[in-house]
Amino acid sequence: MKLTRGVILIALLAALFAGAGACAYAAGKPPFSEEFEKKIGAEAAAQVEKEYKRYEDEEAHTRLVAMVNEIAAASSRPNVVYDVRLLDTEDVNAFSLPGGIVYVTKGLLEEAGSDHEIAGVLAHEIAHNCTYDALRQAEKNEEMFTTNIAALITGILLGANNDMVSTIMVAGEYVRRGILGGYSIKMETAADAHAMEYIMRTSYNPVGLVTFMERLAAEYRRKPQLELGFLKTHPDSPDRVVALKELLLHAGVDLNRRAATEWERPIAEEVHSGGSSYAHVTLRGIEIVRMLNAGPAHETPLARAEEAAGRLTEVMQAGLQRFQVGVGQSGGNPTLVGDGTIIFVVYPEDAQALGVDQGEVAQAARVALLEAMHKEQLERLMGTIDRPTEGAPEVPAAEAGAAG
After folding, report:
1. CA distance linking residue 369 with residue 286, whole number of Å
2. Domain range enclosing 288
3. The last residue of a domain, from among 259, 286, 310
4. Which of 49, 226, 256, 301 would bridge 291 by S-S if both were Cys, CB 3.0 to 4.6 A apart?
5. Is residue 165 in some structural domain?
6. What secondary structure does DSSP assign to 136-158, as a single string?
């Protein structure tokens, strides 16, 4: 994810035009009237679209409009009619302007792991609109619009080099103090909370906002943001993740990330090696179980592996956690169990083929699955989850039979 010149520009333009409009309503016009909002939003949108080209994708636009309409109906301002627009930029971003204009970038569509994640981001932006944050922030900072800020915006618009922009930033006292620049941390935190409220009233999973913010938090840990005032418009991503998790906890929502975003599923494959063949189930490059025979209920080892992978996928999709992985018994045979569901059975012929005890095979599979799930958690923390891990070595684990 990138914090680029364009992202900074969007925040500054939105603040600039909202600030200009604040002067008008402070002079006697009805505060935050529908006409006022639309006027300011249209002015800001015109400037945004001078910098960015619109992106045409009818299918994506239709999907986003449906999302926004459902979320808006669940919001505190259900009568607002939103205008959803796509921007042709790789920046990962979405933002709302007064009057109900919502921009979504192509980069966000490509980065998001699911519609649940996109809906969470849209709910956050709708929350800003519902509480008039752009206009409230502009009213608060109206007196801070100086030639230094205008020079900074002009420099970015005209493609000034980094030295020039840096010079303008250093010269701008209000930028240095962090008084101006998008929404306050308090507003962002409140928007997260309101977004969760809205999403919980829709068909979308509120965990999607958490999984999206977790990737932002991982990016923050890798490359902490500079402590420049106008960049400090959001609470640090790790802090936001903690706050969002607490909201879900108090609401009694299960924090099942796999139900809200893409995740790497178990794979069943046939392997040919040294003139022989077998089937195995792997997860995140770790071999969970190796099928050396067909067992009593399948025609081929691969069929057994596919069933085992299917059962494991189902329990993981339902939110399997590591403490729920164990070894059980079925018909006198050891089993690998996930949250009470038998994933596979170890038969006597499996143990005989391997020259080990049946229980040892089941325990080894349990350890392998726990290792794979731990790897999933680490990759999420590092922000590399759901991305290809080319060149990652396979880690051999248990060799056993599958459920019959």
Report:
1. 8
2. 267-382
3. 259
4. 301
5. no
6. HHHHHTGGG--HHHHHHHHHHHT
- Residues 228, 122 share a domain: yes
Q: Could you say which of 198, 229, 259 is where a domain stops?
A: 259
Among 129, 116, 260, 127, residue whose Cα is nearest residue 202: 116
The SS3 of residue 356 is: coil
Which one-letter DSSP state was computed for residue 233?
-
Q: Provide mean pLDDT across the span 257-276.
A: 89
Residue 158 belongs to a domain: no
d(CA 364, CA 368): 6
**Has residue 179 got a pLDDT over 90?**
no
Strand 267-273 and strand 276-283: the pairing is antiparallel
234 domain-assigned:
yes
DSSP codes joined into one string, 91-145: S--EEEETTTEEEEEHHHHHH-SSHHHHHHHHHHHHHHHHTTHHHHHHHHTGGG-
Residue 299 DSSP symbol? S
What is the C-alpha separation between 129 and 123, in angstroms, rounded? 10
- Predicted confidence at residue 220, as pLDDT, reads 66
Same domain, 210 and 274: no
pTM: 0.70
Q: What is the pLDDT of residues 309-336, one digit of tens each?
A: 999 999 999 999 999 999 999 999 999 9
Q: How many CB atoms lie within 10 A of CB 350?
A: 28
